[in-house]
Amino acid sequence: MDLGISGKRALVLASSRGLGLGIATALAREGAHVLLVGRTEERLAENCKAINAEGKGKADWVGGDLADADFVAAMVQAVEEKLGGIDILVNNTGGPTPGTAEEMTVDKLETFFQSMVLRVITLTTALLPQMKAQGFGRILTVASSGVFEPIPNLALSNTLRGALVGWNKTLSAEVAPHGITSNMILPGRIHTDRIDELDGANAKRQGKSMEDIRTASLKTIPAGRLGTVEEFGAAAAFLCSAPASYVNGTMLRVDGGASKSI
């Protein structure tokens, strides 16, 4: 299938590794010009070199930290300077520290709200006028399967990512008349460094081995395995595509069937 995004310009947040990098790579393989964003500049440069070596799309990078107050202004400037405009925005953020609901403090809530919710909303709002003017845009926000079924010991993530659900649905109806879609993609157990970190934290909390934690988690997934970054990136690329123009305001679960809700 031709996704119809060759030459489209995409900003992918938190794309120095993991799911963000997987999405950026998938978009570039469809011929898009992607702008990678992250805190580790050496890793970003290496990723761009690898993407460009494939000779399909094009990749550039810019350093940025979602926790910084000037992040949105810096990204708007980078989009203009490096991409010359925007067609696709992939909102992706790092996950907060594990913990229970009782362990959430005001400081933690405020800190992670800034980077996981406020920056996502304000950056999207800042880039929308360009998409409206050209009559095309794709907004994709990466969240978590925890917005459907809260994940134990990830109270901060369940709370803050859940806030984006109502925002996305509201936004999707507002932008649809302008040829713009706004969707969410929800990863389940996709094998990344983040999953390894969370399994390690759960092993420590429960006094079990990492292997025991991983084995138990696989039993909850009908597919019987962890997902791959490539599989997740492919699903994300479709939601950013031209053929997905009638998919709007939805949440796509990429979890191997693990979610039990309908």
Essential attributes:
about 260 residues, alpha/beta, Rossmann fold, 2 domains, 7 strands, about 45% helix, SDR_fam, SDR, 3-oxoacyl-ACP reductase, NAD(P)-bd_dom_sf
Compact overview of the structure:
With 262 residues, the chain is an alpha/beta fold. Helix content is 47%, strand content 15%. The protein folds into two domains: 9-190 and 228-254, NAD(P)-binding Rossmann-like Domain (Rossmann fold, 3-Layer(aba) Sandwich), CATH 3.40.50.720; 191-226.
Q: From the alpha carbons, calculate the radius of gyration and give it in angstroms.
A: 18 Å
Count, helices:
8
Instruction: State the strand order across the main sheet.
Output: 3-2-1-4-5-6-7
Enumerate the spans where pLDDT stays under 50 for 5 or more consecutive residues. none
Overall, the morphology is globular
What's the number of extended β-strand segments? Answer: 7
CATH superfamily of the largest domain: NAD(P)-binding Rossmann-like Domain
CATH class of the largest domain: Alpha Beta
In this structure, how is the largest beta sheet organized?
7 strands, parallel
Give the helix/strand class. alpha/beta
Q: What number of domains?
A: 2
- H/E topology pattern: EHEHEHEHEHEHHHE
Q: Assign the CATH architecture of the largest domain.
A: 3-Layer(aba) Sandwich
Strand content: 5-15%
